[in-house]
Amino acid sequence: MKPIPRALAAIFLVVVFSAFASDQTPTVDWNTVAKIREEGLQRSQVMDITGYIVDVLGARLTNSEDMKRAQAWVRGKMEQIGLDKVVIEPFMDYGVTWDNDYFSLHMLEPDYQPMTGFPLTHTPGTPGKVACPAVVAELQTKADLAKFIGKLKGAAVLATPPLAISQASLAQGIARLTDEDLKKLQENVVPPPPRPTPPPPNPDLLKPEEKIAFFKAEGAVAVLQCEGGRPGVVVGFARPGTKDDKWSREKSLGSLPIVVVTPEHYNRMYRILKRGLAVKIEVEIRNRLGEKVEKAANVLGEIPGTDLKDEVVMIGAHFDSWHASPNASDDAAGCAVALEAVRILKAIGAKPRRTIRVALWGGEEQGIYGSQEYVRKHFGNPKEPKNPTTPDYEKFSAYFNQDYGAGQFRGIYLQGNEHARRLFAAWMEPFRDFGLTAISIQSVGSTDHVAFDAAGLPGFQFIQDRIAGTAGHTNLDFLDTLSAEDLMKNAVVEAAFAYQAAIADERVPRKLLK
Ligand SMILES: [Zn+2]
Question: Which of 158, 208, 209, 498 could be stapled to 241 by a disulfide with Cβ–Cβ 3.0 to 4.6 Å?
């Protein structure tokens, strides 16, 4: 820039500063925020909603009979709250339903012990109770196969190495984010470099589905395995290959029963077998598979806007979970917070200018499918030529998500969107006493706001204390460790953010489309 005479520079500065200043002081509707706080902190229903989802409905595997029952309840709950346009909206063909009706696993010899575990999804059951020997067969490469030919017939195969159990989570206790942690998050202003591309896979290594096919061909009865490594915690997901075969009935029934076992019990069997002694187990699994391909669905409802009702602010969380527990923290809590947020807004008679829509997604755990397909259908993506943007794309303001456990909101990630900072800073101001203070420019992933962000739409995830819940994806994520106060505060913040976004003079600004 050329040098500017001093007087002119001063005028220039005043003009720039005033333009900047008017743009920099977003209004906060303190009156409505007070009503939101009063309703949400003195007459909260968030734990009643969370409790119903966790205790009564239970696990919510995408496209299971369990999930359909839970989604029907959500539809009723949204109607009871008084939302408009409540809909269970299918988003993609999602194979056949899968539900576990019964599971039991015992060690019979050399000593009796009931064992903890559960089957992977989209695996078959057993033909009634099966008592059989257990055999260790850890396969890595194709060369390993020859060692086990003819040795697995009628056996339950221990297919993974024993797991070292980490006691770190016990020793560390429950830690909230400290002031120092929040400061670091705020000061971490440079985005991390992209991750290096992983080396190509070794062609000699056996894929998980190849191992299962080998065990099946050798006449094994079941596969036992172990993941995770935290004390008492069972971690396990879906049969390998389910995404490729689209949760097919044929492939599911053609697999072996695959059971994940708690590390202590798995390791005990493994050690006895390594002594050269026999282990006999008894296993019984009853799984229910649907007959036909069905669509997975999201559930949505809204509070209609007034003068800007065609413009939309969204809040939400994923309603689906893995199947081994109700997954209270992943993400029953986030769903309850979103439902409670709209309940609060209805209860105080809020009249947002823009429509506030709540979405409880399906298919998040398998690949953020529900929100991705929703964005694709309703908004489009300017980066995908085959998926042009719709008229609603421009009218969209922002999406806010809770999915980093059930702990309290301590701030928000800007997802690289510097333009949203001044709005969020203003909207956070009424919640300093909650400890909601941090704004981080960092982008975060692994949940549904990514679907919006990837299409160039403002999508955000809150910074949360990583307390409460014994972690999602496990058999131990129940109501007992959630903090009512944290969830009450989150619902209040989410309601206020949705409302502020819905009455602001402008939609939440967007970052440049990359
Ligand atoms: Zn989650």
Answer: 209
Tokens for 436, please give them: 């909601």
The pLDDT of 249-275, averaged and rounded, is 97
CA 405 to ligand 1 center in whole angstroms: 7
What whole-number percentage of the chain has pLDDT above 90? Answer: 86
| CA 354 to centroid of ligand 1, rounded, Å | 28
89 SS3 class: strand
291-309 tens-digit pLDDT = 999 999 999 999 999 999 9
Q: Does 110 sit behind a cis peptide bond, omega within 30 degrees of 0 on the bond before it?
A: yes
- pLDDT for the residue numbered 466: 85
- The torsion angles phi and psi of 311, rounded to 5 degrees, stand at -95, 150
pLDDT, the chain, mean: 93
With a CB cutoff of 8 Å and minimum separation 6, the contacts of 362 are: 62, 63, 67, 71, 91, 296, 297, 298, 318, 319, 320, 369, 370
Q: CA-to-CA distance for 40 and 488, rounded, in angstroms?
A: 6
> Is the pLDDT score of 174 beyond 80?
no
- Rounded to the nearest angstrom, the distance between the alpha carbon of 139 and the centre of ligand 1 is 31
Q: How far is the CA of 470 from the centre of ligand 1 (A)?
A: 13
Question: How far, in Å, from the CA of 53 to the mean position of ligand 1?
Answer: 15
Residue 404 alpha carbon to ligand 1 centre in Å: 7
Ligand 1 centroid, distance to 337 Cα (angstroms): 14
CA angle 67, 321, 378 (to 5 degrees): 75
